[in-house]
Structures are given as structure tokens and as C-alpha cells.
Amino acid sequence: MDRSGAGLNRFGLTLVGLLLLAGGGLALARSLGAWGTRAADRPLLSAGLRGFPDGHPWFWPAVAAGAVTVTLLGLTWLFAQGRSEKLTGLSLEQDGSGVTKVSAAALTSAIEKEVEGLPGVEKTRARLLGSRKHPRLAMTVSYAAGADLQALRSHIAGFALVGLRTAVDRDSLPAVVKLRLVDSSDRLPEPRTPE
């Protein structure tokens, strides 16, 4: 799931949670006599409101339809949480002789190791996203302040990505590469070996 979808999920769940918490808190406060004992002793729904379904035969079918709709929306949302854009592998089609399947982890691990071997690179994280027919690469490269940024970009674009495209036999493989400067103070000191 992308970041905007995750943010929308958090906002929606927070809003629903706050509404439910406020409704439950108000009902609890009323039952405990926050608005007086007279309000606490009266039913929550008035007699007219309680008798409304008796005079309107469409009421309960409408409630049932609303409940089914809310249930279906909830299930749709639940199943959407399980979907991910991350690919587990790619199929490389051969010329009529079959299909070769390549693990996405193997491909991303290879490009990560190649880029991490460059001077000044601290860490690399790569993922294949999209669909099997339209894959794309998302890569984050963390580099130290002394790294040659121009050489790093040239190597990634000219060698690493070209090698990945060749490996998966594709003329085009869209890629987003984020370069992130790592502050040397953020890094942990090297562990000392006992003498």
C-alpha cells in the first residue's frame, strides 16, 4: 500500500474511532447521571421514536440494506489492506520453449549489493512494485557526506539499472531512485573488539 493510502486509512480509522468513543462516552455519562437522575432514568429513545418502525413497514428492510452495505464496504476495505504492490517474482518468457520465473528478492538483492559496493554508499533498499506485466523499481540509497554524488548517480543509471533491465529482458523498467544523505552523527560507532 502506498503512503497516501496508509495516511487515508489512519485518518478514517481515527475519525471512526473518535466518533464511536464520543457516542459511547455520552451514553455512559447519561446513564451515570451526568445530566441529572431524571435523564438517567428515562429510556434513550422516546416513545414516538420507538414506535416509528411499527408504522413504517419499509424501516427494517432499509436497516438491513444499510447493514449489508456497511458490511460489504468493510470487507472491501479489509481485503484492500492485504493487497500490496510489492512483486514476489517476474516471469521471463522464452521463445516458445517455456517460461523462466525469477525471484524479485534475488533481483533486488543483486542490485542492492552492486550499489552498496560503491564508495560512500551506506545502505541500499530496493523493491519491485507494480504488476508482472508492468513492473517498476523503487530504490533508496543512503550515502555518506563524502560520497561523489555525480559518480553515484551515473553508476546507478548507466550500469545498475541497465544490468537489471538486461537481467529481466526488458527494454524499459521504470525506476525511482531516492538518494538520502546520512548524517555521520546518526550512525552507531563501530563495535570494539576485545583485546
| CATH level-1 class of the largest domain | Alpha Beta
Strand adjacency order, main sheet: 3-4-5
Q: Report the mean per-residue pLDDT as an integer.
A: 83
The ordered string of helix (H) and strand (E) elements is HHHHEEHEEHE
Overall outline: elongated
SS field, number of helical segments: 6
* Number of strand segments: 5
Helix content: 40-55%
Q: Give the percentage of residues in beta strands.
A: 15-25%
CATH architecture of the largest domain: 2-Layer Sandwich
Overall structural class, as computed from helix and strand content, comes to alpha+beta
Low-confidence stretches: none
Using the coordinates shown, work out and report the CATH topology of the largest domain: Alpha-Beta Plaits
Largest β-sheet summary: 3 strands, mixed
Count up the domains.
2
Distance between the termini: 48 Å
**How large is the radius of gyration?**
29 Å
Protein name: Alkaline shock response membrane anchor protein AmaP
Keywords: Membrane, Transmembrane, Transmembrane helix
